[in-house]
Structures are given as structure tokens and as C-alpha cells.
Amino acid sequence: MEHPVEQSVDNILKQPGVAGVACLDKNGFCCAARGSVVANAAGRESFGLYKAISRRAAKLSTNGGVPIIKIEVDSSTVVQSVTIKDHEDMTIVVHRT
């Protein structure tokens, strides 16, 4: 039987435009990942960085809400984005193309 976190990652990956998904614990360790986030070493080595960005954004939030961080990269052929959001004890990272 598949773990609920893995099921959630699989469900997100099925959404249109989603190329990869990672679910990180409170320390930035990967609990589950699929697609482009694990396709190369650079993606796998970024998990801690995503968590650090999430923590820093939370400190900047003035209303105490949970920030949603979106990073876009525009290349000559495609626009790619990474969305980072905390949810309960996890950080969700979504790569889109």
C-alpha cells in the first residue's frame, strides 16, 4: 500500500503543466518526489535550498500567513517555474513547464 504522502505527490503530478513534485519534511529532507525534481543531481541537491527559501519567506511575512513562493525562469524555448509552499509540517515543491 502506498504511503499517503506518496499518493498526494502522485495526485499533484497528474495536474496539467506539472513536471515534478517533492514533499520535504521540516528539516528539508525529501519524503517523496516524482518527475523533474529527481531527474538530475541538481534537482535532488536543491531540497535543502527550497526549505531555506520557505523559512526565510515565512520570516518576511508580516501577517503571519503562510507564504507561497514562485520562482520563474524564462529561457528562449520555455518558461519554467517552481512553486514552494508550506503545508502543516511539510514543504511542497512543484515544478511546472
Structural features, described:
- By secondary structure, the chain is of the alpha+beta class.
- It has a single domain (4-96), classed as Dynein light chain 2a, cytoplasmic (Beta-Lactamase).
- The protein contains three helices and five strands.
- The radius of gyration is 13 Å and the shape is globular.
- The N and C termini lie far apart (30 Å).
Give a nutshell description of this structure.
This protein is α+β, with helices and mostly antiparallel strands and 97 residues long. The protein has three helices and five strands; from the N terminus they run αββααβββ.
Describe the SSE topology.
Layout: H1 4-13, E1 18-24, E2 30-35, H2 41-44, H3 47-60, E3 68-74, E4 79-87, E5 90-96
Antiparallel strand pairs: 1-2, 1-5, 3-4, 4-5
Supply database-style keywords.
five-stranded antiparallel beta sheet, 3 helices, Beta-Lactamase, alpha+beta, 97 residues, 29% helix
Q: Bin the helical content.
A: 25-40%
* Class inferred from helices and paired strands: alpha+beta
CATH top level is Alpha Beta
Q: Extract low-pLDDT stretches.
A: none
Task: Output the helix-strand order.
Answer: HEEHHEEE
Q: Number of folding domains?
A: 1
The major beta sheet can be summarized as: 5 strands, antiparallel
The CATH superfamily bears the name Dynein light chain 2a, cytoplasmic
Radius of gyration: 13 Å
The termini sit apart by 30 Å
Question: At the third CATH level, what is the topology name?
Answer: Beta-Lactamase
Categorize the overall geometry: globular
What is the number of beta strands? 5
- Going by CATH, the architecture would be 2-Layer Sandwich
The percentage of residues in β strands lies in 35-45%
Report the mean per-residue pLDDT as an integer: 85
* Number of separate helices: 3
